[in-house]
Amino acid sequence: xxxxxxxxxxxxxxxxxxxxxxxxxxxxxxxxxxxxxxxxxxxxxxxxxxxxxxxxxxxxxxxxxxxxxxxxxxxxxxxxxxxxxxxxxxxxxxxxxxxxxxxxxxxx
Length: 108
Ligand SMILES: [Zn+2]
What we know:
alpha+beta; 45% helix
C-alpha cells in the first residue's frame, strides 16, 4: 500500500505526476482521514465509556419550595432553579450518526 508520505509528495510535486495520479492521491488521503473515525459510536469501540456523562444541558424549572418568595433560600427569590441534566447516550449517538450522515453525503 502506498504510504501517506508518498501521496503527499505526489501532491507537492504535481509536475512529476499525471492529473489522474494527483486526483487519486487526493482521494486516498481524504478517505484515510475519514476512516480514522468510526461510522457509529458503540460500547465496543470504547465510545460509550469515553463520552457518556461528559455533556450536560442547563435548564431552569420553577422552584419547588416557593412561588418567587424573596426569602426563599432554594432559589434566592427568583422563583426558578437551574438544573443540569446529562445528555443521554442515545442523544450523543444520534448527534454523531447525523454528523456521519452529513459527511458521507458531502464526500460522495
Ligand atoms: Zn424558591
